């Protein structure tokens, strides 16, 4: 959840109608229930990721919205990597919510109307090094036990549609019952 001195908010929103790694920042995005970001290439009820669609085109789209918390960008900036919102391909950049620590099924309220449900982690790919050589090592590593740690953001499906803008508040509703950690989707 957010640190007590930082209000959780949307920092930036992005979308792209073509398969490119980075997404241009826009003034607002519209989330459509069960679909994703209006006008974004990854929106749809079934899988939209090119390699996954080629293998299993009828799978449900668990990657309708990509979110990344700005604190990750701050961390890699401290290591010499300047990455701006949208450049990692995320639709929503947030601040004040440690997204990677949330469990599957967490619902994030975005602004006055929209909400998304977390489905899993983004599995980073080598295209990240296209932004800056060596950046992939910052987005995927291993913890002290040797387990893989992915830091390239989280994926979600749209539960409630609405317009999302920078400055909008972010609320967190944890799922009932036992919590399952996010895994790659």
Automatic annotation (TrEMBL):
Record InterPro entries: MoCF_Sase_C, MOSC_domain, Pyrv_Knase-like_insert_dom_sf
Domain of life: Bacteria
SUPFAM superfamilies: PK beta-barrel domain-like
PROSITE patterns, alphabetized: MOSC
Gene3D superfamilies (UniProt xref): PK beta-barrel domain-like
Gene Ontology molecular functions: catalytic activity; molybdenum ion binding; pyridoxal phosphate binding
Domain MOSC: 23-173
Residue runs in coiled coils: none
Region span, Disordered: 166-185
Protein name: MOSC domain-containing protein
């Amino acid at each position: 959840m957010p640190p007590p001195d930082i209000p959780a908010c949307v920092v930036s929103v992005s979308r792209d109608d073509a398969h490119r790694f980075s997404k241009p920042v826009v003034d607002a995005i519209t989330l459509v229930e069960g679909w994703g970001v209006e006008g974004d290439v990854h929106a749809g009820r079934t899988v939209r990721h090119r390699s996954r669609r080629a293998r299993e085109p009828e799978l449900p789209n668990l990657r309708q919205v990509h979110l990344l918390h700005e604190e990750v960008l701050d961390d890699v900036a401290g290591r010499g990597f300047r990455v701006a919102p949208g450049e990692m391909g995320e639709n929503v950049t947030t601040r004040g919510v440690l997204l990677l620590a949330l469990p599957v099924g967490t619902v994030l309220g975005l602004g006055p109307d929209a909400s998304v449900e977390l489905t899993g982690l983004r599995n980073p790919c080598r295209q990240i090094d296209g932004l800056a050589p060596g950046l992939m090592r910052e987005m995927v590593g291993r913890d002290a036990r040797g387990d893989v740690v992915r830091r390239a953001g989280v994926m979600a499906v749209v539960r409630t549609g609405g317009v999302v803008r920078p400055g909008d508040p972010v609320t967190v509703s944890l799922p009932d019952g036992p919590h399952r950690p996010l895994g790659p989707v």
